[in-house]
Amino acid sequence: MSKPKVLISDKMDPNAARIFEERGCEVDVKPGMTPDELKGVIGDYHGLAIRSSTKVTPDILDAATNLKVIGRAGIGVDNVDVPYASGKGVVVMNTPFGNSITTAEHAIAMMMALARQIPDANTRTKAGEWPKKDFMGVEVTAKTLGLIGAGNIGSIVASRAQGLRMKVIAYDPFLTEDRAIELGIEKVDLDTLLSRADFVTLHTPLTDETRNILSRERLENAKPGIRIVNCARGGLIDEVALKDCLESGQVAGAALDVFAEEPATDNPLFDAPNFICTPHLGASTTEAQVNVALQVAEQMADYLVNGGVTNALNMPSLSAEEAPKLRPYMALAEKLGSLVGQLAHGSLTKISIEREGAAAELNGKPITGAVLAGFMRRYSDTVNMVNAPYLAKERGLDVSEIRHDREGAFNTLIRVTVETSSGPRSVAGTLFGTQSPRLVEIFGIGIEAELDGDMLYVVNDDKPGFIGRIGTMLGGHGINIGTFNLGRRDAGGEAVLLLSLDEHPGAEIMTEAEKLEGVKTVKALRF
Ligand SMILES: NC(=O)c1ccc[n+]([C@@H]2O[C@H](COP(=O)([O-])OP(=O)(O)OC[C@H]3O[C@@H](n4cnc5c(N)ncnc54)[C@H](O)[C@@H]3O)[C@@H](O)[C@H]2O)c1
Ligand SMILES: O=C(O)CC[C@@H](O)C(=O)O
């Protein structure tokens, strides 16, 4: 099998390329490409490793016909159109912890630089002014630090600030009281935070809720003389209002590492008093860049080579140890999903995936993803485990996952049921010898069949002579039968035949099959 190919399209620590090669990938390092250049080459790659410069737009994703995974060496993925990537079946991963300490340290450095006006003092001292009288700082000891967002970075900032003897309060709707107690911080609402904090640091992603979270109104009503640090994302603060508040003195100082528009080369805040900034350097330390480069390469190679999934934003995690155990179940799940998708008629609004026995002990999300991928193939050729849940949601399919501790006739079983206009229809399968997927039940009839290649599904009256008739008809057309699988509800009632064929039966054969005496339903299947 040829090696997966990875493109590193941003400046990244060389350890990333080394890890990709060591883990069996071919790698090209081409930072600084224009969007058009990237569009021209992206079709050759299975993996794309980026930092924040590469913008992964729908245009790029449309050209990325072989892409399986995008890895962000860092946290924020606002430069990737994640829903579009999901729709295309591309896994998007980030490295959520590799640069947290570094970014938290940058926020603390910015806070100290603001408190003592170090950048201005430095510039003017070097200019020969010796401006000792012009600078009067403030202590941070015993001051209140308000965190907006107390996740990975916010909580590290909290512990560093506590080391500086600050009182830390936080606004984070997702922070539990227990976690706040563990961090030694007080959980407050946003207005309380802004009315009490001497310093505010922001540590949230940019979302519809957090955009302009420091709005004009909030800035104007905050504690007079507040100082603000943003090392999270531009867009969290109304920059025009911040400039006005710095000019009026309502805000005593602001330090930004991030801007609404980046690169920020001509921002009105540059002229505001007591304003300092850095060019999105939050994650720029040797240690953090080595961490995120190693981590992103390990995660991406793991996915491309072994199927392991870590830190994906659009797919459940699957460890490299779990992947080989789950692989045969995912193959079974996909075949069962495909079977019901091919056999069920009309618009289907409900699907349930049940796991019994050993299957119930496994990570259910990848199994559900695989069932849906097989099932959704009736709607789309490009569906896979990543985009199937999104496509299912888009189509209003109600998906339920059920696990049973009980063990039935099989020590491991997956059952897929769809709700049709004539009631529920189920198929079920197991693994033979831990690896080989087998269908064991179809619409209430026990059968044993391997679902593979071209197959013919026939429902017929269980009467003598039928098997001979269908065999003769297929033979007459030169079609060889590979396996012959038979099941019946009860003797003389309804029987099901699943034949594996060496080639796809054409329309003429299907018409003839439909006319055979005793046939109720006939359908060509492909797996
Ligand atoms: N400047 C840089 O170079 C740099 C480096 C690393 C990370 N970042 C950015 O820092 C931010 C925080 O990173 P993190 O690792 O701490 O993320 P995280 O996911 O661990 O924490 C984010 C926190 O924000 C909280 N939050 C979400 N919505 C909120 C809301 N409406 N109000 C208040 N809190 C809310 C969440 O509950 C969570 O606790 C991210 O945007 C990331 O992209 C910037
Ligand atoms: O890669 C960078 O330099 C920035 C990283 C940072 O914005 C992040 O979200 O991780």
Automatic annotation (TrEMBL):
Residues 325-442 form the D-3-phosphoglycerate dehydrogenase ASB domain. Residues 6-314 form the D-isomer specific 2-hydroxyacid dehydrogenase catalytic domain. It is an enzyme of class 1 (oxidoreductase). Residues 108-282 form the D-isomer specific 2-hydroxyacid dehydrogenase NAD-binding domain. Its EC number is 1.1.1.95. One of its GO terms (biological process) is L-serine biosynthetic process. Catalyzes the reversible oxidation of 3-phospho-D-glycerate to 3-phosphonooxypyruvate, the first step of the phosphorylated L-serine biosynthesis pathway. Also catalyzes the reversible oxidation of 2-hydroxyglutarate to 2-oxoglutarate. This is D-3-phosphoglycerate dehydrogenase. It comes from Erythrobacter litoralis.
